[in-house]
Amino acid sequence: MTSFFEGIQYLFVNILFAPLDFLRSLELKTWFGANTINWIFMIICSVAIVYWIKQLKLQKENGEEYQDTTAHSFLGDDK
Questions:
Q1: Where are the alpha helices (DSSP H) in the chain?
Q2: Which of 45, 49, 65 is nearest to 57 (CA)?
Q3: How far apart are CA 55 and CA 49, in angstroms?
Q4: What integer pLDDT is reported at residue 46 of this predicted model?
């Protein structure tokens, strides 16, 4: 059973985390290069937000947007 967990340790430490170790060593040379993964995620999120806002605008222009302030029963139900 011990060899199973040592195999998992080897997989993660020596194989799957190797690119992250490279980025950590790259930090001393270039900060932007070391944060490449962060830049990629920020670009992906920015593109997704722009796409989402454009879709909201299209729905509002087509009159498909549902803006009922009493969407929840506890907000506008004065019975």
A1: 2-10, 18-26, 31-34, 36-61, 73-76
A2: 65
A3: 10
A4: 98
What is the C-alpha end-to-end distance of the chain, expressed in Å?
Answer: 63
- pLDDT tens, position by position, 18-68: 988 888 888 889 888 888 889 999 999 999 999 999 999 998 888 877 766
Distance CA 35, CA 19 (A): 12
Exposure class string for 4-41: b at 16+ Cβ within 10 A, else e: eeeeeeeeeeeeeeeeeeeeeeeeeeeeeebeeeeeee
Kindly state the greatest CA–CA separation across the chain. Answer: 67
Total residues found in the chain within this entry: 79
- pTM to 2 decimal places: 0.59
